[in-house]
Amino acid sequence: MSALAKFIPHWQLYPASEFSNFTAHWDALNQELYQSHPLLDSRFVQALLHHFGNPQVVLVVYPENAVQKGNFLFVQSKNALIWTTFLPTQAQIAPLLCGNPQALQRVLADLPGSAVSFDILCQDPHYSFPAHALAHATTLIHATTINIDLQGNFEDYWQQRSKNLQQNIKRYFNRLKKHQLNYRLNVVSKPDELSLALDRYGELEIKSWKGRAGTAIHSENVQGQFYGAVMSSFAASEQAEIVELYLDDQLAASRINILNKDMLVILKTTYSEPLAHLSPGRLLLYLLIKREFSLKRVNSIEFYTSATPEQISWSSGQRNIEHRTTYQSAKVKLLHNGLKRIKASFNH
């Protein structure tokens, strides 16, 4: 029996390893709901599961029908009473697709054990179901992310930035002239070249604070292998690139991007710490934005970061990434919130 033939009007649970049986329907729903958001693309999700998944991760499916779209969630048990979405740190938003949010209220009854609440983590309100669709729910702001709208031209966008930002970037370019340094942008998108560019990216990170903290990516660790898999799979459809800034012949900064026809998503960024006084990361961002305005290939640049005030100064839009929790009943919600207040009072 095929995976799709198993659909009945209840949530169905599968090992996450069976996701390959559902990728065609997953991608079709992602296209219908969110114009094939890159972070919800099955290739990105497959890489997350392969490199950061565990046997406890469950694929939970609610079937589509002639009236309602379907739902796909990846969940895992937090404890005997609480379930949560699968969210490794490399996922800026939790991988789930929900065309029928009303059915989320029924998922607690179909999960194993005695689940009383379900944490739906890191939801982008522009690319998720409406929060008000959940009954007995709470919403917590996790982070503020930013984007740049690429409609119009670069000159108008730049004139709308703060005078402080404009003057800083001008000063950085003047500093290059003072040191007699030439700059150039190198965009790598060919599949056979991306792995080398990713190695160069890793070499910068290893020499940075991330290397000292043990969080830098390189070809021998799981993070590097994850990004290698993502870039390889997206490069096959010309949806991956690494943009590098060189000062003379020295790599100064690098950004890892994936894209679709609507948006470019910046996955990671790094720079050479010995060149920090030249602000190569900001110079690369300026040149990248200018390039995207000229290419007119996407409508926005999405950062998916916990934005600082300095990062917000570059943006034309901001929105909050949300954690949402739905409870079995209003009584459970009231009890849980009461216990949280008591715990908070003891912590003070």
UniProtKB/TrEMBL annotation:
<dbReference type="InterPro" id="IPR016181">
    <property type="entry name" value="Acyl_CoA_acyltransferase"/>
</dbReference>
<dbReference type="Pfam" id="PF13480">
    <property type="entry name" value="Acetyltransf_6"/>
</dbReference>
<protein>
    <recommendedName>
        <fullName>BioF2-like acetyltransferase domain-containing protein</fullName>
    </recommendedName>
</protein>
<feature type="domain" description="BioF2-like acetyltransferase">
    <location>
        <begin position="165"/>
        <end position="305"/>
    </location>
</feature>
<dbReference type="InterPro" id="IPR038740">
    <property type="entry name" value="BioF2-like_GNAT_dom"/>
</dbReference>
